[in-house]
Amino acid sequence: MNTVLPLLEAPPRTLQLPDRAREGLARTPFGLYVHVPFCATRCGYCDFNTYTADELGPGASRAEYAGTAVAELRQAAETLGPDLPTVSTVFVGGGTPTLLAADDLAAVLAAVRELFPVADDVEVTTEANPETVTPASLATLRAAGFTRISLGMQSAAEHVLAVLDRRHTPGRAVEAAREARAAGFEHVNLDLIYGTPGETDADWAASLDAVLTAPVDHVSAYALIVEDGTRLARRIDRGELPLPDDDVLADRYEQADATLHAAGFDWYEVSNWARGEAARCRHNELYWANANWWGVGPGAHSHVGGLRWWNVKHPAAYAGRLLRGESPVQDTELLDDDDRALETVMLGLRLREGLPLTALSEVGRARAADAVVRGLLEPGAHAAGRAVLTDRGRLLADALVRDLTD
């Protein structure tokens, strides 16, 4: 059972890590996540912790955000020291990180290098909307040390982008990917969403074909999830749009996998494909391995040695705490051994390598044997002591995780 550790009424100056969380700190892969909570407009399907200019209110601004993020990075170094872990990955996500000036993102990365030991082969990723980057801004980011970019394409069909409330035009994402390659980015990813109301088989095929014209070595494809409280959910509730159909979503996934595999991409996590091991997103692999990371920014989540915490959500509250020299942490929880074992299964089963059967309980191992019979786990891998999803198992991965961990 998780142990929730409530913070004091007045937040402490910095987060205090218990001894248990420090165990193995130097030996465990460590990454930094920097959340940029700004968006030009709110996409209809999105429930992330993001804010348009009209939603920010007083006390927070894009212009000052880089300095605020650096203030939390200083707290992180103080809290984790004196034996700081080496940073192996940095991921700047959002929101739309590239709404900040490229020089601001470069300044945040420079602060990381100033405050932490950084691996020689560090992977540094930024997310970006295609309409918010230019050849000049991409060149600045690359010169600053960014090695990887993930562009939100979602679809090549104009009417699908309209349903999602995306602002870029069809073709811009592919163009931005070419600009990123020209700027020297080592790895380029395009994100897709499938199952949007009104999307046809031909639309999805055209989106996949468009991706393959781009100089990318990584593709992410996610089924549309209708989140409560979003504009998309309200439109569906009013009957303006139909709910995504599960059978259609399965067909879309199989089509994506077949198309990408034929083009030289192999899946390494249920929703992610890469051209070889070097193209995998190492930062996401760090999450899936339940390693350590510090999340910077409003609402960002962190995990170190079984201690999880999350920051206050609104950018003004976040900035105010840091301005006063206080911790931005909203709350914490300490995971026990059972919690961590459960997360290992939940995350590990989604990976191509799967997980050892010994990670499952006795009941879970019996159910894994039954999953082999049902065609959801690979029989050869099971005989060798691992639970590895079959192609059919990938379609039912979430349900299988629940079955193996109940």
From TrEMBL:
<dbReference type="InterPro" id="IPR006638">
    <property type="entry name" value="Elp3/MiaA/NifB-like_rSAM"/>
</dbReference>
<keyword id="KW-0349">Heme</keyword>
<dbReference type="InterPro" id="IPR007197">
    <property type="entry name" value="rSAM"/>
</dbReference>
<dbReference type="GO" id="GO:0051539">
    <property type="term" value="F:4 iron, 4 sulfur cluster binding"/>
</dbReference>
<dbReference type="GO" id="GO:0004109">
    <property type="term" value="F:coproporphyrinogen oxidase activity"/>
</dbReference>
<dbReference type="GO" id="GO:0005737">
    <property type="term" value="C:cytoplasm"/>
</dbReference>
<comment type="function">
    <text>Probably acts as a heme chaperone, transferring heme to an unknown acceptor. Binds one molecule of heme per monomer, possibly covalently. Binds 1 [4Fe-4S] cluster. The cluster is coordinated with 3 cysteines and an exchangeable S-adenosyl-L-methionine.</text>
</comment>
<keyword id="KW-0143">Chaperone</keyword>
<protein>
    <recommendedName>
        <fullName>Heme chaperone HemW</fullName>
    </recommendedName>
</protein>
<dbReference type="InterPro" id="IPR034505">
    <property type="entry name" value="Coproporphyrinogen-III_oxidase"/>
</dbReference>
<dbReference type="GO" id="GO:0006779">
    <property type="term" value="P:porphyrin-containing compound biosynthetic process"/>
</dbReference>
<keyword id="KW-0479">Metal-binding</keyword>
<dbReference type="InterPro" id="IPR013785">
    <property type="entry name" value="Aldolase_TIM"/>
</dbReference>
<dbReference type="InterPro" id="IPR010723">
    <property type="entry name" value="HemN_C"/>
</dbReference>
<dbReference type="GO" id="GO:0046872">
    <property type="term" value="F:metal ion binding"/>
</dbReference>
<dbReference type="Pfam" id="PF06969">
    <property type="entry name" value="HemN_C"/>
</dbReference>
<keyword id="KW-0411">Iron-sulfur</keyword>
<dbReference type="InterPro" id="IPR004559">
    <property type="entry name" value="HemW-like"/>
</dbReference>
<keyword id="KW-0004">4Fe-4S</keyword>
<dbReference type="Pfam" id="PF04055">
    <property type="entry name" value="Radical_SAM"/>
</dbReference>
<feature type="domain" description="Radical SAM core">
    <location>
        <begin position="24"/>
        <end position="266"/>
    </location>
</feature>
<dbReference type="InterPro" id="IPR058240">
    <property type="entry name" value="rSAM_sf"/>
</dbReference>
<keyword id="KW-0949">S-adenosyl-L-methionine</keyword>
<comment type="similarity">
    <text>Belongs to the anaerobic coproporphyrinogen-III oxidase family. HemW subfamily.</text>
</comment>
<keyword id="KW-0963">Cytoplasm</keyword>
<keyword id="KW-0408">Iron</keyword>
